[in-house]
Amino acid sequence: MSNVKIAVFVGSLRAASINLQLARALEKLVPANVKFEYVSLGDIPLFNQDLENDMPAPAAKMKQQIVDAQGVLFVTPEHNRSIPAALKNAIDWGSRPWGKNVWLGKSGGVLGTSPSAAGTGLAQQHLRNILAAEGVNVLTTPEVFLQMKEGLIDGQHNITNEDTRKFLQGWVDRYVAWVQQLAK
Fold first, then answer.
1. Where is the secretion signal located (predicted)?
2. Phi-psi region of 135 (alpha: psi -120 to 50; beta: other; left: phi over 0)
3. Across the strands, what pairs with 109?
4. Over the stretch 60-108, which tens digit does the pLDDT of each residue have?
5. In sequence order, which residues have a C-beta less than 8 Å from that of residue 35 and are 6 or more positions away?
6. Distances (CA, A) of 110 to 20, 53, 71, 137
7. Residues 3/35, Cβ–Cβ less than 8 Å
8. CA–CA distance, 79 with 103 (Å, rounded to integer)
9. Model confidence over 39-54: pLDDT tens digits?
């Protein structure tokens, strides 16, 4: 496959998000033919079924980004032992209206980071359950439960710990192969 587009969903809305830092670091690990397109979650209104047939422009734009992508990548924090509301809201919009679920059949990747030693394990499990219900083919292994420590990712989005960089490179390689395999 020549060019691969990945729609990237960062669950945090914070400008200084450590999960955005992780996504930017992962972007530096993908082959030249793979392009990340970041989906803006902050401007998508709360899902309201009354609006699904006359979809707000930000939700419609997000759905088109998913349609245009060969894969979807979720880099998410853990909020109260689950996924952030903005991420769940985006998933809801993408699945509606009935019969127009843009998630169905997409190749997905799930990971995240936290200052906690447990990383974002519970959020990832919840997200995997939701994505399975929407028909996303999520890469199952290896899983990434990354503890963010000061300096792990530098200001240019380089991963400074060689073992962590090698591990994440292996994950990225496996994810890109997964997307390419299922996009055929």
1. none
2. left
3. 73
4. 999 999 999 999 999 999 999 999 999 999 999 999 999 999 999 999 9
5. 3, 4, 5, 6
6. 13, 29, 11, 11
7. yes
8. 23
9. 999 999 999 999 999 9
For the chain, the DSSP string reads: ---EEEEEEES---TT-HHHHHHHHHHTTS-TTEEEEEPP-TTSPPP-GGGGGG--HHHHHHHHHHHH-SEEEEE---BTTB--HHHHHHHHHHT-STT--TTTT-EEEEEEEESSTTTTHHHHHHHHHHHHHTT-EE--SS--EEEP-TTSB-TTS-B--HHHHHHHHHHHHHHHHHHHHHH-
CB 182 within 8 A of CB 3: no
Angle (CA) 155-145-108 rounded to 5° is 90
pLDDT classification of 183: cutoffs 50, 70, 90: confident
Is this prediction's pTM over 0.90?
A: yes
- Angular region, 125: left φ>0, alpha ψ -120 to 50, beta rest: alpha
Contact 7, 41 (CB under 8 A): no
List, in order, residues 6 or more apart from 152 with CB less than 8 Å away. Answer: 159, 160, 161, 164
CA 178 to chain centre: 15
